[in-house]
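Same chain as my last thread, 397 residues:
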Amino acid sequence: MFCCIGYKSHTANYISHELLNILNLWDIPKSKILAVVTDNDSTMLKAIKENFGENRHLRCFAHSINLVAEGSMKKVDGLLDLISKVRNIVKFIKRSVNCSDELRKLHKKKDGNNIKKLILDVVTRWNSVYFMCKRFLELKEVVNQIVLKHINAPHMLNVTSEISVQKYATMSLVIPIISCINDNLSTMLPTSRIGVEFKNAITDEMKKRFEFIEKNYLLSVSTILDPRFKNIHFKDALELSKHLRFINNSINSLSSTVEEDHLSTDSSDSASEYDNIDLWGHHKNLARKSLKTYVDKTNLGNQKYLGPEITIYLSTPVSPLKTDPLITWEELKPMYPLIHKLATKYLSGVSTSVPSERLFSCASNTISKTRNRLCGKSASKLIFLNNFADQFWLLSE
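reply #2:
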């Protein structure tokens, strides 16, 4: 992860210089870089393009999804005003000790000890508007009682739509998530004007930012090599064929000196709980179709130009959604030794710069008002050490 901390203007040249310095410091050759993930800032885009080329650059998926939400909300007449009214009610209750106490008592009376607080959105937190509206909907009956009792409170309102949230994703998750979002959008049937306009706006924004996502070879190859997804989410047959040829050519160029032991794998899926809005419902339907195709053995030989490893790999059922693809590949290694080499390379990438963005919060906590004399080297070491997991400190329990 790269976090540029300094006092110079963050131009493309400066960012390029700092990136190369970090690679030299850690003795990492540019040829070893699989992908560089950044936000959509034009300066970052220019710096990465000049140093690593467009093929190895990925725009942060979380940031792009956030831009879809922001762009969609701006297009819908009255939606921003609706969100603003929710925000004003939340602010009113959170700023009043009496109202906060009333909220706690009423909620405890209604739901027992499972007490929840209202959430106020933060501009720099991408999903915070969603969390604010979601919690508001959960507590709307209790909030309504409080607002009606206080004459100086903002007017209450009815909110009828929720915004879908995106979680942290690796490279192989991007195309399946986009496929599932589009499927969910197509099945939603909002009845209010704002709901209809918001759905149309989101659909347009998704098409604008992700219409040609399958052309990206990093995202596509990593998805195909993920045993949970393979090729079941691809819509563009021509692009899929290109990526399969790339994988096939890469396999042919690899060394074939691998022991060919066979390993039986369990492809059964376990029942799992999902949210009310099942983002992965579309994937589960595709996975069931994939299993039927495998049983009927109609998928074998469809791609005649492919080698035996990739053909058999694509013809078997996808793995359960909750499995770790890298662990799965260690089990599949004896069966597909050549694909295993590619998979461990392409499944190592991430699709979002969120972890890097969190370094700024870590830096602000480290370089506080009471520690404002920390030099740059000491601050960098403290930030680095702060990101170590507990097990690396070898502390006894």
